[in-house]
Amino acid sequence: MKKINRRNFIRKTAVAGFGMGLGTAVYPSVGGRVHGDDVRIGIIGLDTSHSIAFTRIINNPGDDEMSGYRVVAAYPYGSKTIESSYSRIPGYTEDIKGMGVEITGSVNELLNMVDVVLLETNDGNLHLEQALEVFEAGKTVFIDKPVAGSLRDTIEIFRAGERYGIPVFSSSSLRWARHAQALRSGELSGRIIGADTYSPAIIEPSHPDLFWYGVHGVETLYTVMGTGCREVKRFYTEGTDIVVGTWSDERLGTFRGGREGRIGYGGTAFGTDGVHDIGPYDGYRPMMVEVINFFRTGIPPVQAGETIEIFAFMEAADVSKERGGAAVLIEEVIKEAEG
User: Fold this and answer.
1) Which string of DSSP letters, residue by residue, matches 171-216?
2) Which among 174, 172, 169, 142 has a CA at the least distance from the CA of 158?
3) CATH code (residue 75)
4) Residues forming beta bridges with residue 169, ordered by sequence position
5) Is 117 strand, coil or helix?
6) Could you report the per-residue pLDDT of 165-181, keeping only the tens digit for each?
7) One domain for residues 128 and 186
């Protein structure tokens, strides 16, 4: 595989303006639908329990919705500087080998053995480089959370996917909880006029504060509220974050992130037809159903523009923290990331 000059590639493919072409991207050339009786899935990154859990779900012979797809190969690395991640690689490598998955010595070797990819590396700072290898190989890819270690890299990943014609999406599994989806569609509570969500918000110093774990609660907020947040304010203490988003139609959405106690995952949605709990969390399988359907159709179930705004919301929260809780425009952080 030809080595990618990352800096030159980014310079050539940068497109000014948030969301231009990313909301309804069509991928007619290289990537797209991948279906048949034996579609081979490869995993990049064995530094997260997701790799093991997803393999168990996909490779379950009794699950008709996974029929025709199988995880066959994995490249272990993976985080190199985050001890809580890289220390798990040896154990997870043995676990996945026990499920009949072949271990490869490089991403390149993996890409030559598979049809589609789950990019699972826990360290989002590695995702752009790894995603570019996947795109150049012409493989459709799902990128686990966080999609990247910065808003800048998040935007560049989606621009690169569009440039190469490769379908790509990223999401937290919290998005696919039944109540969250029913609220999004209007089936429960009617039109959503506001929401409060919560999740753990453990901070990993190598990432913006909410990217590492707060992303789960923020994605839940966006699942029910939709896009269109205008500005963000963050209130921070050592144990808790409260982030308030004001949408362009003056709706308010809040995220509470906890670093002490057992906070769990969930929230409350306020609609024109009543108030409804957003939970409970339904586990990983609903997201895996969406991922396999994405591989079958080549159509991302979450548009790039929405994912970019989620990460802009979280990056704006960091800027608000630096400014003592002042309001920060989403547009400001996107322009900064694109510059």
Assistant:
1) E-GGGG-HHHHHHHHTTTTSSEEEEEEEEE----TTS-TTTTTTHH
2) 169
3) 3.40.50.720
4) 142
5) strand
6) 999 999 999 999 999 99
7) no
- Cis amide leading into 146 (omega within 30): yes
Give counts: helices (H), strands (E), the chain: 12, 13
List the CATH number of the domain containing 188. 3.30.360.10
Closest C-alpha among 80, 72, 130 to residue 106: 130
Question: In total, how many domains does the chain have?
Answer: 2
Our CA dihedral for 121, 123, 126, 127, rounded to 10 degrees, sits at: 60
Residue with the two structure tokens 């999609």: 147
What residue type is assigned to position 217 of the chain?
G
* pTM, rounded to two decimals: 0.90
Half-sphere exposure of 84 (CA within 13 A, CB side): 8
* Gap between the terminal Cα atoms of the chain: 30
Residue where the block lists tokens 């069509």:
26
**Structural domain for 260, as ranges:** 174-284+314-338
> For 281-339, how does the pLDDT look when each residue is reduced to its tens digit (9 = 90+)?
999 999 999 999 999 999 999 999 999 999 999 999 999 999 999 999 999 999 999 97
H or E stretch covering 36: none
Taking the CA atoms of residue 218, residue 220, residue 225 and residue 229 in that order, the dihedral angle to the nearest 10 degrees is 10
